[in-house]
Design goal:
Keywords: ATP-binding, DNA damage, DNA repair, Helicase, Hydrolase, Nucleotide-binding
Strand content: 15-25%
Pfam families: PDDEXK_1
Protein name: PD-(D/E)XK nuclease family protein
Organism: Streptosporangium amethystogenes subsp. fukuiense
Number of strands: 23
Structural class: alpha+beta
Distance between the termini: 23 Å
InterPro entries: PDDEXK_AddAB-type
Number of helices: 15
């Protein structure tokens, strides 16, 4: 594993405990985070006492607890649910409790369906309390183990073994990806842990031998959709071993090698965060005067959801699945941003030649990113962009970074702050931070109200002024595109009045959130648009065609508000509706 000079570790790097799901790392994720996480005996010399949230942050753990009571103790689910939730160590938000109830019922229904299918083949599976593990090494000081997290089942004679991976929303896995192949390998050759509580504590883990199976199954279960996907169902155990050798081992070697640091959401859980030289440290960035309850992660997206409804912000922070369909306006914005990112990656200005008619034989960049109809909807906005393309100059444009991830740690508030600029560049050596916004009609955003209406601009000013990018001199831009216009607003991050306004906006957005430990719902007509309202016991059913005099485009669902009606709450709602619905599964 690479160890930059800015980070000094202590302990034993030769002990490895890898969870198969960690192999689902995505391009751009921090390589060193995964490499350190897989080494339970490796710690940074500069450490800190970890503080934990005063509320339940891992709903799947409670789902497992309920299912354990049902499958291993024979407790009826209607008794198991209140008992497990009532005995939870931390407070469980009512919306989280509702999702857990749904997830448990859904899982058991899927389980019955899977059992019926196998019964038709003459196969009976029983739940197994002891998980399986593959481990080995010349000594405890060089122990390596491969584990999986989920639920185990086996036939009474041991000839069939099934592992089930739980997904919050729906099945997502692939048959030929390393994580699935690793799960199949553990099912095929792993031994049962003698005491389940030792799985993540003991090195080596005490195990007991089990008969070698003749059939291995790996199944994913979607706890919200109630769907399942059989990823592996095979009697070819040699094929499983071969896939492990050819695909899993190389993927594991790359993961354990680390490298490619990329500060972001991982930093909140990273053991190396306090001494990582790649993570910007900006004490006082948010203007808060206390450290709150524990290390938390905040972004402008968090702020938007919290401003509309604290309960919504909390449920989404826990990644509970929503059920709102992504709107056409959100898709249009996503495709426009994707095109601009790809175009700016080339390092040259966008031109008319880059934007052929949607019916052309070759649509260039667009053909790699979207369907023709999607390009047809985004193209009018992109045409307007040509006149304000940030790579046109004037001035020498260097260090072009489209869509970078930015993370900064505010130690005074104990908050990891995340931002996602649309473009960073330097013009004649000076940093310029650009945000881009598409809307069907002008939103009435001006230099006078932009920091309040588009708070990511205020955060950008604060990030520059705090030295997160290496110096404290820079500009912040807002590029506003409609089908008929293009406009760029510019803010100087060294101007005292701009910095003061930006600080007030950021502090206003973060103060209440930072102190909140309850996350009460604020029901209203906007519940109609809330993707997680199905879990919220306080959600209002009185959805109206207009909310606080907002009107909507009947074709796209986009907010069309009178400029005279702009305020922060309404603009936050408009921004939420314009965001694509995420399908972000944690790697469990």
């Amino acid at each position: 594993m690479s160890q930059p000079s800015s980070t000094e570790f202590t302990g034993n790097p030769d002990v490895v405990r890898l969870s198969a799901s960690l192999l689902d790392r995505r391009d751009g994720d921090c390589g060193d985070f995964a490499a350190v996480k897989a080494r339970p005996k490796l710690w940074p010399r500069v450490s800190e006492r970890r503080r934990y949230a005063p509320w339940e942050t891992f709903p799947l753990g409670l789902v497992m607890g309920v299912l354990d009571a049902v499958e291993f103790e024979g407790t009826p689910i209607d008794e198991a649910l209140p008992r497990v939730l009532g005995n939870a160590r931390d407070t469980v938000h009512p919306g989280v409790a509702n999702w857990i109830e749904h997830a448990c019922h859904t899982y058991l229904e899927v389980s019955e369906s899977l059992a019926a299918t196998l019964a038709s083949e003459g196969v009976e599976l029983r739940p197994e309390h002891r998980p399986r593990i593959v481990q080995g090494g010349r000594s405890p000081a060089e122990m390596r183990s491969l584990t999986v997290w989920g639920r185990w089942y086996g036939s009474p004679d041991g000839t069939t073994v099934e592992f089930r991976r739980m997904r919050l929303r729906r099945p997502l896995g692939g048959t030929d990806v390393p994580s699935t192949q690793a799960m199949a390998y553990v099912a095929a050759v792993g031994k049962q842990v003698t005491e389940p509580s030792e799985l993540h504590r003991a090195i080596p883990v005490p195990v007991r031998p089990v008969p070698a199976p003749r059939r291995v199954r790996v199944v994913e279960v979607g706890l919200t959709t109630g769907t399942e996907q059989v990823l592996v169902d095979t009697a070819d155990l040699e094929g499983i071993r071969g896939a492990y050798a050819s695909n899993v081992r190389p993927a594991t070697a790359r993961l354990l090698a680390g490298g490619g640091r990329a500060p972001g959401r991982d930093c909140a859980e990273c053991k190396a965060r306090t001494s990582c030289g790649d993570l910007a440290h900006a004490p006082g960035l948010l203007g808060l005067d206390d450290r709150g309850t524990h290390l938390r992660t905040w972004s402008i997206t968090t702020s938007r959801y919290y401003q509309v409804c604290p309960a919504q912000a909390h449920l989404r922070e826990l990644r509970l699945p929503g059920d709102r369909e992504t709107s056409p306006s959100a898709e249009r914005g996503r495709h426009a941003h994707a095109w601009l990112e790809a175009a700016h990656t080339r390092g040259r200005p966008c031109t008319l030649a880059d934007l052929p008619e949607s019916g052309a034989d070759d649509c260039g960049i667009a053909d790699e990113l979207m369907e023709r109809q999607e390009y047809h909807r985004a193209r009018p906005y992109l045409l307007r962009h040509l006149t304000v393309c940030p790579l046109r100059g004037p001035g020498e444009v260097t260090e072009i970074r489209p869509e970078p991830k930015v993370a900064a740690y505010d130690a005074r508030a104990d908050v990891l702050v995340l931002a996602h600029p649309d473009l960073l560049r330097r013009v004649d050596g000076r940093l310029v931070y650009r945000e881009q916004k598409t809307s069907a009609v002008p939103r009435g955003i001006t230099v006078g109200n932009a920091l309040e209406m588009v708070p990511q601009l205020a955060l950008a000013v604060r990030l520059i002024a705090a030295g997160v990018f290496g110096d404290t001199d820079g500009l912040v831009e807002l590029e506003q595109l409609t089908p008929d216009s293009a406009e760029v607003l510019t803010f100087d991050a060294t101007d005292p009045a701009t910095v003061s306004t930006a600080q007030a906006v950021v502090l206003d957005r973060v103060r209440s959130w930072h102190r909140d430990v309850v996350f009460r719902a604020t029901p209203g007509a906007w519940c109609r648009f809330c993707p997680v309202s199905r879990w919220c016991p306080d959600a209002s059913g009185s959805g109206l065609p207009a909310v606080d005099d907002l009107t909507f485009d009947p074709l796209t669902g986009e907010v069309l508000a009178s400029p005279g009606r702009l305020d922060g709450h309404l603009e936050a709602l408009a921004a939420i509706l314009a965001d694509p619905e995420p399908d972000d599964e944690p790697p469990f």
